[in-house]
Design a protein that fits this description.
The protein has 547 residues and is an alpha+beta fold. Helix content is 59%, strand content 11%. A 5-stranded antiparallel β-sheet has the order 3-2-4-1-5, with helices on one face. A hairpin with a 5-residue loop joins strand 2 and strand 3. Helix 3 crosses helix 18 and helix 21 packs antiparallel against helix 22. The longest helix is centred in the last third of the chain and has 32 residues. The mean pLDDT is 82.
Length: 547
């Protein structure tokens, strides 16, 4: 059986991926390794025989696909974060990562570790795959070929030993502090509408206008002046005629108006306008109909909703958009991406034409534009090759770990350049990330498995594990204390930022389960890119300084 796997590397990849999936599904106290289970499956299989290893190309391809897809999805949120104290949040993360850098140097000195193991320890205790990849690439690029094989496994050993506690330690820190501080995630989400979608369930309500003074102001004045987080749909006048609510619409006594809002946001609106109506305006679909439409045509993606010609050409509005599992209200600045599902209100006879303009095609959503994907990856590879001079005569390159990430962030923010739409469909982006991680973890795991278990059997692994626990728990607890107590960052955002600092999807998943809203996703996107780039730099700097 071993010889069969040695002779057939494709079969080896499939076996490691399947075995890793099973390991990743095992839950301990509600947490699991997820796709990182592939790394430990690769280590276990690779330990059986030194010849059981996947080609280096597998690792490199997986890394490039993963970081580029992450950059594309994080780009809009990353640049937007600087409008909401994003600079403060990212400086906090950089400060904590610098502390982890110092703790790693202390562990190297006290435990007399090899420089490459210490650098891997840093990447593993902070669970950062691109940092590990950057280390491996740096070793290959700087060492003579005869020394590469002797050193190349050491970062993976340090990474693999520290990785498990890098996940569990952060989750334990969140579990402990949220109970100690008696955090109310629901109250935080209700008070933070301005930072982004909070994951609240949206419903359509009907209101009968009974207050004469409601007609003194336009709908836009009402929404902005009263601070309502709602979206008006259509209005029915006393004569039965219906119309869509525009920014300059003035409501009249006796009007029946539909409003889309979260349940807790509906109360102030109905109290100001009048009273809840027993009849549901949305039930009357004779004059205006509504439909969820998939966004699959590039002509409507990457542009603010207010600029879409399709809405101006027809008497239509969009009230909400759903991306993945998150739904939120639409405003004029909302930018649609492939795979979004929009709720459109329009006349029944126009629905077919509007659907055609948006695409509304499952088939198109499953297709990836290979031209823009290839051009984006090419840009990332070229950025990674640019030499960056550092003090002391050191030349640094972002490499395969950092270059595609930077390119993905910029292109994700741009959305489109002329006719080229850089966005990937939501499902395609998730697939590329998952596939990239599987390829990377399977590659590095099988190639380092034999050396990994040799280190453990010699007794040196326990000290590395303990050092990783100290680095992980110290940084996690300090981040939470500084953010919540000193900077007064809401815990929902803060736990997402902590997951972003550790660039750890398992921690983000736990944070989402605890908060039951989307604030952790916003915090994660705010700091993830800076945290990733900083850890790539710090890990390689450790290798340079400690040799």
């Amino acid at each position: 059986m071993l010889q069969l796997l040695i002779d057939n590397q494709l079969l080896l990849l499939v076996v490691v991926a399947a075995f890793g999936y099973l390991i990743g599904q095992v839950k301990v106290k509600g947490s699991s390794l997820g796709v990182a289970g592939v790394l430990f499956a690769g280590l276990a299989v690779g330990a059986l025989d030194p010849a059981l290893k996947l080609p280096e190309f597998t690792t490199l391809l997986g890394l490039v696909l993963f970081v580029y897809a992450v950059g594309l999805s994080s780009g809009p949120g990353f640049f937007a974060s600087f409008r909401r104290k994003g600079l403060r949040d990212n400086l906090l993360v950089l400060g904590v990562l610098t502390l982890a850098f110092g703790l790693t140097i202390a562990a190297w000195y006290v435990l007399d570790l090899e420089a490459a193991v210490a650098a891997g320890l840093y990447a593993g205790s902070l669970t950062n795959t691109p940092a590990l990849a950057g280390l491996l690439e740096y070793v290959r690029a700087t060492l003579p070929p005869e020394l590469v094989q002797a050193v190349i496994d050491e970062p993976v050993i340090g990474y693999s030993i520290a990785y498990p506690v890098g996940v569990v330690g952060v989750i334990a820190a969140i579990f402990f502090t949220q109970r100690l501080w008696k955090v109310d995630y629901a109250a935080e989400a209700a008070a933070l509408h301005d930072v982004g979608p909070s994951g609240q369930a949206l419903k359509s309500y009907s209101i009968r206008v009974t207050r004469p003074d409601a007609a003194a102001r336009t709908v836009q004045d009402l929404v902005e002046g009263e601070g309502w987080d709602v979206r008006f749909g259509r209005v029915q006048h006393g004569d039965g005629a219906q119309a869509l609510v525009e920014a300059d619409t003035r409501l009249r006594v006796g009007d029946l108006v539909s409003v889309v809002a979260a349940e807790e946001d509906f109360g102030p609106v109905v109290a100001y306008l009048g009273e809840p109506a027993s009849e549901r305006l949305e039930s009357d679909r004779s004059q205006y109909d509504f439909r969820r439409i998939f966004v699959s045509k590039s002509g409507v993606t990457g542009r603010p909703v207010r600029s879409l010609r399709v809405l101006k050409s027809y008497d239509a509005i969009i009230t909400r958009v759903r991306r993945g599992d998150v739904e939120w209200l639409v405003d004029g600045d909302t930018v649609l991406e492939p795979g979004d599902r929009v709720r459109v209100v329009a006349r029944p006879e126009d629905m077919a034409a509007i659907s055609k303009q948006f695409g509304d095609s499952y088939k198109a959503l499953s297709e990836v534009n290979l031209l823009t994907l290839s051009l984006g990856l090419l840009a990332g590879l070229l950025v990674g090759m640019i030499p960056l001079p550092l003090p002391g005569g050191i030349t640094f390159r972002l490499g395969l770990a950092g270059g595609p990430l930077i390119a993905g962030l910029v292109l994700g923010r741009l959305g489109r350049t002329g006719p080229l739409a850089w966005y990937l469909p939501y499902s395609a982006n998730l697939l590329l990330r998952q596939l990239g991680l599987v390829l990377f973890f399977a590659g590095v795991g099988t190639r380092a498995g034999y050396a990994f278990f040799s280190t453990l059997s010699q007794g040196g692994g326990l000290a590395v594990f303990a050092a990783g626990a100290v680095i992980t728990c110290t940084t996690a607890l300090l981040m939470l204390w500084l953010g919540y107590k000193l900077f007064r960052i809401p815990m929902g955002l803060l736990v997402g930022m902590l997951a972003g600092l550790h660039t750890q999807p398992a921690v983000l998943s736990y944070a989402l389960d605890q908060s039951r809203n989307e604030l952790p996703n916003i915090g994660y996107a705010t700091v993830f890119p800076i945290a990733t780039i900083a850890k790539i730099l710090f890990a390689q700097l450790l290798l340079v300084l400690l040799v």
